[in-house]
Write a structure and sequence with these properties.
The radius of gyration is 25 Å and the shape is elongated. The protein folds into two domains: 21-81; 95-331, 2-enoyl-CoA Hydratase, Chain A, domain 1 (Alpha-Beta Complex), CATH 3.90.226.10. The protein is built from eight helices and 13 strands. Helix 1 packs antiparallel against helix 2 (49-59) and helix 2 packs antiparallel against helix 3 (70-78). Helix 5 (132-150) links the parallel strand 3 (119-123) and strand 4. The longest helix has 37 residues, at 4-40. By secondary structure, it is of the alpha/beta class. The strands form two sheets. Strands 1, 5, 6, 7, 8, 11 and 12 form a seven-stranded antiparallel beta sheet that branches. Strands 2-3-4-9-10-13 form a six-stranded mixed beta sheet, sandwiched between helices. It starts with a helix and ends with a helix.
């Protein structure tokens, strides 16, 4: 028995050492996430960091695994005062890189048609993944729709951003290039008041000088000076609002509908050690004039505010499209 005691003591010490190492690793993980927030959050100068660190670490103190810290990290993200930062666990991050159809999801198809053989209608749906093939298909489909509609010599364009709740801005921005009068019309401003614009050039999308992506497809139609109507509602959010802002100030564009949602901020993904993402707000949306859309929930106001006065979807649709058509007709008299 006396011989067993030292072995048992050694075993207990080893277990205790492993447990302490595990706890230290978990604490280090949480602190690393907090450090990313402290260094990059848009409103970092307004946040009581000692309190956030203390409360987050307290919330995570009983965690036995990294996964058990996720609620605490989400709590910290909720303190960033931007209503937009969020957390993506590793399995969600993994799904970002898979194709829509491979996961059983419907691909974000572009709806397009001619209305009364005079008005080109085209939707801009949200695309929310990071898959190369899907991005190229999305942009290629959009260009094909533009080419088909353009060949019919429309009197004007109706671009529908209603219901676009955001996702990945890069493919959406590449898609709308043939409709824009300049390749650099939207960006974000950071906490130090430095403005950075998105730019499109020969299939490449940049953020400032940083290359974000190179697309396979290239648009074959040229910019049109004919009227463009942008349709918005309060579900137009995040990257959808960046699309709307890209058209702000363009002479042939009129935004009609309802104010957008008001998630007018730029997010950046930061990868943690287990593959999870902090999706952190680090900039405020600006348009070509450098107007900042900094008020959460205010959104982008339309040039023509619509009030359908009905909850019937078909009646709302008819009303929106008729106002769009009337606006095009007024501008082409």
């Amino acid at each position: 028995m006396k011989k067993l005691f030292p072995l048992l003591l050694l075993l207990l010490l080893c277990c205790s050492s492993k447990l302490q190492a595990q706890q230290d690793s978990i604490k280090k993980y949480v602190i690393s996430a907090l450090d990313v927030m402290k260094s990059n959050a848009l409103h970092r100068s307004e946040i009581n960091w000692p309190e956030v660190y203390t409360k987050t670490l307290e919330a995570a103190k009983d965690a036995k695994t990294l996964r058990m810290t996720y609620p605490a990290i989400q709590y910290a993200l909720d303190q960033m005062k931007d209503a937009h930062s969020h957390f993506a666990p590793p399995e969600m991050v993994s799904s970002f890189y898979k194709r829509y159809r491979d996961q059983g999801f419907e691909f974000p198809n572009i709806n397009f048609r001619m209305i009364d053989q005079q008005y080109a209608y085209l939707s801009i749906p949200a695309i929310g993944n990071l898959n190369d093939d899907d991005w190229n298909e999305y942009v290629g489909n959009f260009y094909a729709a533009l080419e088909e509609l353009s060949s019919q010599n429309p009197k004007g364009w109706i671009i529908d951003v209603r219901g676009n709740e955001g996702g990945m801005f890069t493919p959406m921005y590449a898609a709308i290039q043939p409709l824009l009068d300049h390749p650099q019309v939207v960006g974000s401003v950071n906490i130090t008041n430095v403005s950075t614009f998105y730019t499109y050039k020969k299939g490449k999308v940049y953020f400032g000088k940083r290359l974000l992506y190179t697309f396979e497809a290239a648009p074959k139609i040229k910019y049109t000076t004919r009227p463009i109507i942008i349709l918005t509602d309060n579900k137009t959010a995040s990257s959808g609002e960046f699309i709307v802002a890209a058209f702000k100030g363009q002479k042939n564009v009129t935004q009609i509908g309802r104010p957008t949602n008001g998630l007018t901020s730029d997010n950046q993904e930061y990868k943690l050690s287990d593959g999870a993402f902090l999706i952190l707000t680090n900039g405020t949306l600006i348009d070509r004039s450098k107007k900042a859309y900094s008020t959460i929930g205010e959104g982008i106001l339309p040039d023509d505010l619509l009030d359908p006065k009905t909850d019937v979807a078909s009646e709302i649709e008819t009303y929106y499209l008729q106002v769009a058509i009337d606006t095009i007709n007024q501008k082409t008299k």
